[in-house]
Records
---
Amino acid sequence: MNIILFGPPGAGKGTQAELIINKYNLPHLSTGNIFRAAIKNQTPLGQKVTAILDAGDLVPDQLTIDLVAEELKLDKYSNGAVFDGFPRTVSQAEALDKLLAVKGEKVDAFISLDVEEEELVKRILSRGQGRSDDTEEGIKNRLKVYHDETAPVQAYYESHDQAFEISGIGTIEEIHNRIVDVLSRSSSK
Ligand code: AMP
């Protein structure tokens, strides 16, 4: 099963992804985590993307798509994945469809977490993870990039009839239960 957790920065994608991977025994594919690990380990990829992440801009599509293509070749993704933070542009969404088609798979559910902007800023500033992009400037830019480049991804999936939107407001458990509910509906579609 391939699940995309979608939403603006601060919507809770990472938290909810952790719960879903445990429940469904699926691997987590977070491009943000991969980039941060590369930066920490000072790999060539890390050096290329450090300034981009700090500014809250998007890593170029081709670099991101190539990375996901390589990642999806690993055995651990043989039963699907929970995608978190990918796809973030329509080009990435199109590329993912193709990558999955090669494996005889598809996106089984696209779940968008809906949280209003004021709440997002509050959450990011209070999550205190010490991320280098969690500054007021970084957050502002990430939200702008989300509206300009990432939000259109939702329309892409809506036209594919696999999209669900749920409220991202509530306790972690309430939101998790909404996701589980949506997944039980998508598997019976
Ligand atoms: P995240 O952990 O998903 O919030 O991602 C953190 C940062 O990594 C983003 O602000 C981007 O700079 C970069 N990033 C993560 N995923 C992608 C992606 N799919 N496309 C482009 N840039 C990405």
---
Amino acid sequence: MLILVANLGSTSFKYRLFRMDEDGGEVVAKGGYERVDDYAAVIDDALATLQRDGVISSPAEIDAVGFKTVLGKNLSGCVIADQAVIDALEGFAAVAPAHNPPYANGIRQFAKSLPKAELVALFETAFYQWTSQASANYAIPKTWRDIGIRRYGFHGASHKFVAERSAELCGREDVAQIARRLYLDGPQSVSGKPFRVISCHLGGSSSVTGILNGVAIGTSMGFSPQSGLPQNNRVGDLDSGAIPYAMRTLGIPLDEAERQLTKESGLLGLSGVSNDIRDVRQAADSGNKDAQLALDCLVHSIRHWIGAFMIELGGIDALVFTAGIGENNPALRAAVCQGLEGFGICADPAKNAACRATECDIASDDSPAAILVIPANEELVLAREVFRKLS
Ligand code: AMP
């Protein structure tokens, strides 16, 4: 099955074309465009390029297009990208302004350019559709809840991949099978011991998710990707009382407060140095106290959420690190794991130091819990879900 995974940004379009079968898949072509103002033109150009380069003999060969949609109003899951998906994206355009309008437009455009292809949307919120009401709800008035304000969660594709892969690596094929088929069959009970995973997706944008038997029980991100851990330049968790106080005291309007919390906060805001953890670490190592504070706050927040999910899960069988920081930053992993031996999380310093951007278990031989590094590959995750949906 030929599946095109479309990554649509507010001014960009990137794609990867996968050939998928039961055993997995491979990328057969990839490309992208920056500074896009006409999606129709670049999508048609991409299809023409694939044909000209001999990758496909006709665009009609493409069986499906996958969209990693972020947040839909009253809609989630891995679903056929039809008018209901477009309406759901447009219904929450104000909550995800950088993501929802380009995906709504992209789906419309692909429906025109590839009328025979199946279009599939995998919402980033999909992995959290079975979390408890207690975990999903905020303590807000009913009128607020009625307009859709609740904890949705994000990075669903990445955390679901972790749910599958961690079970495979820990020899829990029963759980891996449940996780793989989650969007087809829903949660299933396991006959043996429960399998409890805490997945740390740490990158430009970060979240921690608790996973029981292949299904998310909760996550650090909430209504929007603004909450949870400090992000590269977004604030993460913040007391709602701080916003009116800052607006009144600093004399800034709501738009400016929103801009500062989404563009000038997180690692950048705390460190005053950079939104990239490599620069922040370098500054901290040179004695910059604000940079050190930024790193400490990130580690503190990660551990806060790990602790929360250990209680919810009643223990832990695997702690997982994924995404740019999780895969490449042994110092941060060491800081997260420090002093957790009493909870069964025992990292091996040498294994941790040696592991960069490859799959490995960095736990000591006698650690009760596995500590896994699992490289993220969100495009492949998407291609796999589209393949499963259509097979
Ligand atoms: P992601 O959003 O998963 O692409 O992760 C991006 C972030 O990961 C960057 O902002 C860096 O802070 C971090 N990162 C990426 N590559 C490395 C690396 N080789 N070493 C340390 N940190 C890295």
